[in-house]
Design a protein that fits this description.
single chain, alpha+beta, 60s Ribosomal Protein L30, Chain: A, two-stranded antiparallel sheet
């Protein structure tokens, strides 16, 4: 069964504040829940310590690897939950998504995303963590 994914915005909710959609309606035979990914390599080493954009790049590369492990891709993603440590990185995060998402999501329908500011992540060196849900 191929997933039936409809991603959209509602006029009543106004324009989204960034590159995401407000709603994802999904009919799928299976879901893939990907734990929060951070900027590590295969050896568990922190990539981009102190460099928010380098950490974004590695975090999303790790998500892509997890998706591929289930024969899925970006168009299977139906929700993100993003955790940032520093509020000054919000603009950098939005810029990263505006720049990278068109190449990742061919249909230009970006999944809903909840963005949370938190005190810290599991290691102080991490600046971003992204949890992902995909429909298979």
């Amino acid at each position: 069964m191929n997933p039936d994914i409809k991603i959209y915005n509602l006029r009543e909710l106004g324009t989204p504040l960034g590159p995401y959609s407000q709603v994802a309606r999904v009919k799928a035979g299976e879901f893939l829940f990907i734990a929060g990914m951070v900027a590590t390599d295969a050896g568990g080493n922190v990539i981009g310590e102190g460099d928010f954009l380098a950490q974004c790049k590695q975090t999303f590369a790790n998500i892509e690897a997890a998706l591929r492990s289930a024969n899925a891709g970006w168009d299977n993603v139906v929700q993100f939950t993003t955790y940032l440590v520093h509020s000054q990185d919000i603009a950098k995060f939005m810029d990263f998504r505006r720049r990278e998402f068109p190449g990742m999501f061919r249909n230009r329908l970006y999944p809903p995303n909840t963005l949370l500011m938190i005190d810290r992540l599991v290691k102080e060196a991490f600046l971003i963590e992204v949890q992902t849900v995909a429909a298979l």
